[in-house]
Design a protein that fits this description.
The protein has about 170 residues and is mainly alpha-helical. About 60% of the residues lie in helices and about 5% in strands. Helix 1 runs antiparallel to helix 6.
Length: about 170
């Protein structure tokens, strides 16, 4: 599928509700933070998504639109959520994520991006030259990646309990 802003917004708009439906009301055993940068749980992922709304997607898109390749993106702290989410609960994080995402999408829509603008380039601190369309496509896939990550982390809670059926459960492999 070729990148189209309308298709991207469909997924980006759906993510907060998807997470609320999957995680809202679950007990801490399913969602609590691992406090471990190598083994994120649902709480950690939602905190990470909030941090991305604040410092990654729209801020980097602004850099591309306003300064182009002349300005390298500020490096993204992939682990900031461990400190920023302390003393919060998942319900608060889900609400915060939904509000931050709506604000991001409102700004994105207001730009009325053209095909020419989507090909504008910026500079990623590790990856080098990237286009606005690549950044926005990555935002979509990033969401989907983390929805999968949450489901996988939750499934692993029953890794041993599924017994011989584990052979048929690709999420546990």
């Amino acid at each position: 599928m070729q990148f189209q802003i309308e298709n991207a917004v469909e997924i980006l708009s759906a993510t907060p509700g998807t997470l609320r439906a999957l995680l809202g009301g679950l007990s801490d055993g399913w969602i609590s933070s691992s406090s471990n940068s190598d083994s994120w749980q649902a709480f950690d992922v939602v905190g990470h998504l909030i941090h991305g709304e604040e410092t990654d997607w729209i801020p980097r898109a602004r850099v591309i639109l306003e300064q182009g390749e002349n300005q390298t993106f500020v490096p993204f702290d992939r682990f900031a959520q461990f400190e920023k989410s302390k003393d919060k609960n998942l319900s608060d994080l889900l609400a915060e994520f939904a509000a931050a995402r709506e604000k991001s999408l409102s700004e994105l829509r207001s730009w009325n991006l053209t095909g020419e603008q989507l090909e504008l380039k910026g500079t990623h601190p590790e990856l080098g030259e990237v286009t606005l369309s690549q950044l926005l496509a990555t935002w979509v896939v990033h969401d989907l990646n983390h929805v999968r990550q949450i489901a996988t982390a939750m499934a692993r809670h029953y890794d041993a309990e599924v017994g011989p059926w584990k052979e048929y459960l690709s999420i546990l492999k």
